[in-house]
Amino acid sequence: MQNFSLIVSAIICFIVLLILIIYLKSKFGNKFEIKNPDIILALLPIVIWLLLSGEISSLQVGDLKFETAFKKAKNESISNQIDKLPITVVRAESKASIFQIETILQSRPQSLKFIVGNKNYYQEAISEYLMKLSRSTIKYVVFDNRDNRFLGLIPLVELNELISDQNQLTIDSLTSWLTTGNENKILSIKGILPSSISISENTTKQEALERMEKANSDLLPVIDKDSKLRGVVERSRLVASLLLDVSKSIDKL
Question: CA 41, CA 24: separation in Å to the nearest integer?
Fold first, then answer.
């Protein structure tokens, strides 16, 4: 019954995609006709979905064997899929905090970094940073240890949601864990992505997707050989990259 439902879903998706392709071609002046590349293009997302789910192991269309093309694509390195993170270290000095926030906003970074074990963090300053930076380009909050090695990261919006619910996390607790260097407590924050699930630039796309499935996450941190944060990889970009890689094989038909 499950396989039958998958087949029906695949057929419906194929028909919808094929109709969309024909509509777009006719809209932009092409003749109302269906060619083999149109059929293959409509099949491509479905084939990749079935291959990823393990429902099929291969599919032959003309001279193109999707198993070969897909294996080649998923074994490519993820190096081109990394979002580089210009990280800003926060030194929350009590009288300089406003100036520092404005400086950070001007530099338009993607992340905000805390050093776990730095005693110069203050509750009021951290609260002010998280509130004001949530309306900026900041996407992630990064935690490093005192050796500047990556510990974990969490999307800023998720951290603020936890703090807004006093039963989840408080600024007082977060400040205490930071200043006392309590790494275990930091890594226990709900939704944090620890260094233990991070990948390297040489990780293949297949390995990255498998790690995402195991971690139940659409995002993975990428670290370099010195355990420093290099960036992040998102599932959406990986899947889009796989589609592009496989489509290159279609062009050779």
Answer: 13
